[in-house]
Specification:
The protein has 357 residues and is an all-alpha fold. Helix content is 73%, strand content 0%. It has 17 helices and no strands.
């Protein structure tokens, strides 16, 4: 029994490594593209808010809230920088007082985190696919989000969203695999990197609680997600208080933001028009549900997850007054885009295979 478990873990680990290498082989030129041509100064990037935190992880005076609480990325970027990784090429980012190798380290950490995250999504999707055609469906479903504007522009950059997305992908792997204890641990850990991760799993569990009427496990996950977010608030307000963006934790400020919100062109552009892969996957899902009623059991849940999370992120963006940055936060819907794409394409592939035989 124990030997069987070890063999199963070893096989899963080997599959994960092969998937990771495949996705990296398909996408690694993006690292050079970001490093060579993206200028965080021209883009008014938050990289400059993270820079000193990358140099001194664990120093809660290095920048202000909420950026300072994303310490996971700070430590990883600092360690990558200390490895001395460098690219012998000029770059669009040349600014006195800033080490471009720190910028490269941040890009590498984000890139490797995103590839690692989508490797988990690839792995969990393969459990529902069979044969070479199933493998191709999953590969295509994961590569489409990895080629999206959100990942190229925001993910492969000097920010912290790559590692945060990795945590969300691992949590989604646990969620879809029904490994609830591990999911609970990840939700608790994630408050040291990104406060949105507990919120996202609270949203997913609330959707499934309403959809299935199953108290267990969804109500405990919803409750634990709320507890984790409240722990983050307590950390920020009482245990390690750092000034900055205090209104993001004010309920009255959230209400005022909702009441006074007026969408401008940039919000519509980044929040909706540039989210093409989200709408592509949902349209394909609707077509599949109409043409292949048998797909409903596997497809309706992921569709509700994707649509619900997309709408919730728009609402969070409005309440937190992050403006057009909501387009960057919508990047967290991309793992669900991969799930919806795979479950939408699979019935068509199966039908074509049946017709061929």
């Amino acid at each position: 029994m124990l030997n069987h478990t070890y063999r199963h873990l070893a096989r899963g680990g080997l599959n994960y490594i092969l998937i990771f290498l495949f996705l990296m082989l398909c996408t690694y030129p993006m690292v050079y593209l970001s490093y060579r041509f993206f200028d965080p100064a021209a883009a008014n990037s938050d990289f400059f808010r993270y820079y000193h935190m990358y140099l001194a992880p664990g120093d809660f005076t290095a920048t202000y809230a909420p950026f300072i609480y994303r310490q996971g990325s700070a430590f990883l970027t600092h360690w990558m920088w200390e490895l001395g990784v460098s690219i012998p090429s000029s770059t669009a980012f040349e600014m006195p007082g800033y080490d471009r190798d720190v910028y490269l380290a941040a890009i590498l950490v984000n890139y490797l985190s995103i590839i690692a995250g989508f490797s988990f999504i690839f792995l969990v999707l393969m459990r529902h696919m069979q044969g070479a055609l199933g493998l191709l469906v999953v590969a295509a479903s994961c590569l489409v989000p990895l080629a999206s504007l959100q990942v190229i522009w925001f993910g492969y950059s000097g920010l912290t969203d790559g590692f945060s997305l990795l945590l969300f992908c691992i949590g989604l792997y646990f969620y879809l695999s029904e490994r609830w204890v591990l999911l609970g641990l990840l939700i608790a850990i994630s408050i040291g990197q990104r406060e949105l991760v507990p919120i996202f799993f609270g949203i997913l569990s609330a959707i499934d609680l309403l959809r299935t009427r199953r108290i267990r496990p969804y109500l405990p996950i919803l409750g634990w997600s709320i507890v984790a977010f409240l722990a983050y608030v307590l950390l920020r307000k009482a245990f390690i208080p750092v000034e900055g963006h205090e209104t993001q934790l004010s309920v009255s400020a959230w209400v005022r933001s909702l009441m006074n919100f007026r969408p401008d062109g940039r919000f519509i552009l980044q929040g909706f028009l540039l989210q093409n892969v989200v709408f592509l996957s949902l349209v394909l899902a609707v077509v599949t549900l109409r043409a292949k009623p048998g797909a409903r059991a596997r497809l309706i849940g992921p569709c509700l997850h994707l649509a619900g999370l997309f709408g919730a992120i728009l609402m969070i963006g409005i309440m937190a007054k992050i403006g057009s940055n909501v387009g960057r936060i919508e990047m967290y819907t991309l793992p669900l885009v991969a799930v919806v794409l795979a479950q939408s394409i699979l019935p068509w592939v199966k039908a074509s295979g049946d017709n061929a035989t």
